[in-house]
Amino acid sequence: MTDLLIRNVRPMGGAACDILVRGGRIDRIGPALEAPGVPVEEGGGAIAVPGLVEAHTHLDKTLMGMGWYENVVGADLRAMIDNERAERRRLGHDPRRQSMRHALALAGAGTTHVRSHVDVDTENGLAALEGVLATREDLRGIVDMEIVAFPQSGLVSRPGTRELLDEAMALGADLVGGLDPCGIDRDPRGHLDAVFGLAERHGRGIDIHLHEAGELGAFSMEMIIERTRALGMRGRVAISHAFCLGMPDWVRTEALLAALAEEDVAILTTGAPSREVPSVRRVLDAGLRMGAGCDGVLDTWNPWNRPDMLDRARIVAQKNNFRSDADVELALHVCSTGGAAVMGVADHVLAEGRPADLALLPGTTLAEAVATGGPVTLTLKGGRVTGRQGRPEREAP
Amino acid sequence: MTDLLIRNVRPMGGAACDILVRGGRIDRIGPALEAPGVPVEEGGGAIAVPGLVEAHTHLDKTLMGMGWYENVVGADLRAMIDNERAERRRLGHDPRRQSMRHALALAGAGTTHVRSHVDVDTENGLAALEGVLATREDLRGIVDMEIVAFPQSGLVSRPGTRELLDEAMALGADLVGGLDPCGIDRDPRGHLDAVFGLAERHGRGIDIHLHEAGELGAFSMEMIIERTRALGMRGRVAISHAFCLGMPDWVRTEALLAALAEEDVAILTTGAPSREVPSVRRVLDAGLRMGAGCDGVLDTWNPWNRPDMLDRARIVAQKNNFRSDADVELALHVCSTGGAAVMGVADHVLAEGRPADLALLPGTTLAEAVATGGPVTLTLKGGRVTGRQGRPEREAP
């Protein structure tokens, strides 16, 4: 286990001090610490924050390092799903190699925890899952990874998918995924019963993509809450995107937020610029756990997202019209401590006794670090240096 | 006047060729051009596009190079306006120096044309305008600059402002500005009559900030169109932001777009992530001229925007949910040729006989250049190199 003395850093942008790591945990935080024989990292006055948390991504989708992908599909959800399923083969997409590239890029950019959805479908079977499972094993000690078995192409509308998800859970996936119970499967009851059934059978949590907007999304959200309550799954369900919470009807969304809070359903956002999205402040004020993610990075869906949670904090902040330093810090919180809470890491903070999972950011204040966008100068996972100047210590394949 | 041979570039991402500049204009575009004695720039296979056009910014506001500005104001428009007016003095803001920093950064990032609003108010008088006018003079041959005399703090509600705007136009401002006729002055008729009156008196065009959303914005927009028609100002009025065109009522906005098209009123967008914004495709399909801008950069309003129109093309694309390569090219068009058309440069394209105002972008395709975000490898203004690798050739103060 790692021992390390980090000199001259400013926890959360406060006064400069040292951080002593022993056995992979933060042993002491204070001025002028001494630890003879312990290796030293010079922090240079950088801001120390808890490791960034990528809580919604798709490690099995990226085309990083495979050249420019010309997108001729546009923005129709069904078309993007069908296109990707077909393109995986045509492009010779290797989920093992690609998920390594993606996850290591995240580590280089300050990330210590990742929740990734991984496609499971009747065309590509469990190939993507097997690749990402191998990457998770390989990167143990670099990133903590949760895997969601994700029926991207539909579940009850594609016979055989349920059985594959069952197998995926047995193979080591951590959560059952789902998406758009109305929009994709056109059978909200069937879809959600299948998702919750699998979760119950394997004793696992759930993370459902909900792109459905307005009242349609609200309806699906209610059905998710009903099942969470009925099956006693309080605190074990997350909803990703949850665009419907961004609809203008505040009375309606206030009620939805209260119902979500009762069942401790977590919300994951990407701050999607082109969509209505949940308000960070309202979600947190309602007492919900909230995290964020970059979504797919350089894939057949879009070329926009970067594997960088500091960049994501900026996107989330801008989408929420955050301008004051205090508001910007809230966006950063969601990209770190907030996301960790969704992943079941209850106390992801810089404190003595906690794992030495942290990132050093350049800048005088947290808000400046978000606005200028790094690069993150150092990433530590369990006290081990996993990234420097925005780049991973370990070379990607 | 400048002669230059640019070797090995790909106009609009097409086949590689050379571009010969003579007397500041594009003389020939073709393969293996010869021009003995003419200096040569090696393009390295980069994509050549018409110079980027920053068509909505505030050169007099930036705090670039003045250290981190802690924002405690938040997102209320009136509060942001009042805060800035007071802070200019406290911070010792020098509009001459700051506008130089901002404009040169734009030039370094591929920009050849800039339209800047400049604050005119009874507290700071014409100081900002004088600073930006001096910068415009200083940067002649580096960027073509249009200046909008902008009553940021209100017009008819602040006695003395009208007279200052009058003076500003006489001093050399190119257009009369205005903002939120209902929201700020609380007197749409008074505000717009004053703006159009000044424009008529000085024989100049108009560019009005319209943040007002939904029906309120639509009402103000109608009043702008009415006055444009009544005063015979067809083709000489632009509306910046025009958030109301992003409202969900497509029947209503379709009618507004048709009315705008009749009077050839141009639209300028920033692709603001947190607001409803005009759809690029709908605005262009309606036959309107449309440009884009980064808005204020690192100022008392927000820390988000960068002086970089390639970055802005990405933001506009994301806001419009553009994903296919063809759609992304449309966002880039708006940030170049589209914005030029708003500034009265009707034919801002790479063609023989046109001024040699162009930018070289890295990447295999236009969409890749937007997605990866540069840096722009070379900026040319009238054939003169004004930027390299994202940095201005001339050092900023």
TrEMBL record, chains A, B:
One of its GO terms (molecular function) is hydrolase activity, acting on carbon-nitrogen (but not peptide) bonds, in cyclic amidines. Pfam families: Amidohydro_3 (PF07969). Gene3D superfamilies: Metal-dependent hydrolases, Urease, subunit C, domain 1. InterPro entries: Amidohydro_3, Metal-dep_hydrolase_composite, Metal_Hydrolase, Metallo-hydrolase_Enzymes. Residues 45-385 form the Amidohydrolase domain. CDD domains: Bact_CD. Signal peptide: none annotated. Transmembrane segments: none annotated. This is Cytosine deaminase. It comes from Roseivivax isoporae LMG 25204.
